[in-house]
Design brief:
455 residues; alpha/beta; Rossmann fold; 2 domains; 6-stranded parallel β-sheet; disordered N terminus
Length: 455
């Protein structure tokens, strides 16, 4: 009789997960939670009432409300976001309450011992709480590896004076990051190393380095050079795999998704539709809104435009659009199931704000991009998309109808666009290869599972 491999009886373990309550942070964290659940872990989600996830969509998880006592299902508004961010993200109130809740969970975990805490990297105060309880903490960084490197270099960029350069220097390249222009650094929204946002990023980076490991929504082939560079600063265990290839983000949407877009998409020619969405927080001025509308019409391409309530400063929804808009070629909705739209055969390109979740979803579906970044890591992503991956066009000089229509036609009609679209499809194939048996993403997931199981 042949020797049989020794059977390992694994104790059923629980993971506590704490997402930041913003759509772009909730989506990847719940995708990660689903993935870890599929690997045999029990999942407890800590959440705030502000932007609370739709618990009914996740009957397999345990949910516990923490930190704020605002109304149930309170969702995003600019004022509520500022109030929440000031109290819990910048001032980091709630550490004592979180510690008490974690102590309860640890004490009740006799049948399902708690392996670790996974938090959004921006919840940096959770590191000291976890340390006080001898609880391993891993962090999810919801940006790219490249953006993580730039963010960790903010003290250096400040020391070199980049944040105080005037408009005459905007087109110059950043010596330490030749991919970037000075205006990309300024678009991040940091004025000096001492402003609250810069201090938050500094604390995030410091406590991420002190954590037990860092997870990215990416894959090795996409950011191979960046991975080699990041290990210099982040000596902790590192894991990355493309979340959209495993679980869709639609179930974690805070806004109602308009699924009537699919009968409309079904009627369009293959690869003919431009999908337009600037994410869950970005805002435009009314004059920019009108430039977008005219640029879409002037491009003469079919389009599906997501205009969520609150996108336009001072506007409820569509009241300022030109008469007759969107016409026969266009469709405007408040929110859409983005990943499914990108996967639809009618979708030919994606005009995006360049958030990393949207970028990864587009890469995973092989869809070329047009990038109009607003703040944070978005301008960094736009450069990466347009100049490293070369699967998109960066609209870097604002929102002007002529440049908009020209960019749309460059990507969707011109010969240059064919090359961009071919490269986008090639990256989709690389993402697919990474998730097969023996692929880089599969191996990274197994490493993560084994690592968490070792705690």
């Amino acid at each position: 009789m042949e020797n049989q491999p020794e059977t390992t009886v694994r104790v059923h373990r629980r993971i506590i997960i704490f997402p930041l309550p913003l759509q772009g942070h909730i989506n990847p964290m719940l995708q990660l939670a689903n993935l870890l659940y599929s690997k045999g872990f029990s999942i407890t989600i800590l959440h705030t009432n502000f932007n609370a996830p739709k618990i009914s969509n996740y009957p397999h998880f345990t949910f516990i409300s923490v930190l704020d006592n605002g109304p149930e299902n309170e969702h995003f508004s600019k004022s509520s976001l500022i109030e929440f961010a000031h109290k819990f993200i910048f001032k980091q109130e709630g550490a004592d309450e979180l510690r008490v809740q974690l102590e309860r969970l640890l004490a009740s975990g006799k049948d399902e011992p708690v392996s670790c805490l996974i938090t959004d990297a921006l919840w940096h105060f959770t590191q000291s709480v976890a340390d006080s309880l001898n609880l391993p903490r891993l962090v999810l960084r919801t940006t790219s590896v490249y953006s993580t490197i730039v963010y960790s270099s903010i003290p250096l960029l400040d020391d070199r004076g980049y944040f105080t350069l005037d408009q005459s220097h905007w087109e110059e390249h950043v010596e330490e990051f030749p991919l970037l222009k000075v205006k990309d650094i300024l678009k991040m929204g940091i004025k000096s190393i001492k402003d609250p946002y810069a201090e938050l990023i500094g604390d995030m980076v410091k406590q991420a380095k002190a954590s037990s490991g860092i997870i990215w929504n990416s894959f090795k082939e996409l950011e191979e050079t960046e991975l080699q560079r990041v290990q210099i600063d982040f000596s902790i265990p590192r894991f990355l795999f493309p979340f959209p290839k495993y679980f869709a983000a639609s179930s974690s949407s805070l806004l109602e998704q308009d699924r009537t877009v699919f009968p409309w998409l079904d009627q369009q020619l293959p690869k003919s539709v431009l999908y337009v969405s600037f994410g869950s927080i970005s805002q435009v001025k009314e004059e920019e809104y009108l430039e977008i509308a005219h640029g879409l019409v002037n491009s003469k391409q079919p389009f599906l435009w997501v205009v969520r309530p609150g996108l336009v400063t001072g506007s409820t929804w569509l009241e300022s659009l030109p008469d007759g808009f969107p016409g026969e070629k266009g469709r405007v909705v408040e929110w859409a199931p983005q990943q499914e739209v990108l996967a639809h055969e009618a979708t030919g390109a994606f005009w995006t704000h360049g958030g990393w979740n949207s970028t990864l979803e587009s890469v995973c579906e092989g869809v070329a991009m047009i990038c109009s970044p607003f703040l944070g890591d978005q301008p960094l992503d736009a450069r990466f998309i347009s100049q490293v991956l070369r699967i998109g066009v960066y609209l870097e000089n604002g929102l002007q109808r002529e440049e908009i229509s020209n960019a749309i036609r460059r990507v969707m009609v011109d010969e240059e666009g064919k090359e961009i679209r071919d490269r986008a499809r090639a990256w989709k194939q690389k993402a697919n290869v990474s998730i097969i048996k023996g692929g880089s993403s599969t191996e990274s997931i197994e490493s993560l599972v084994n690592y968490i199981s070792s705690f």
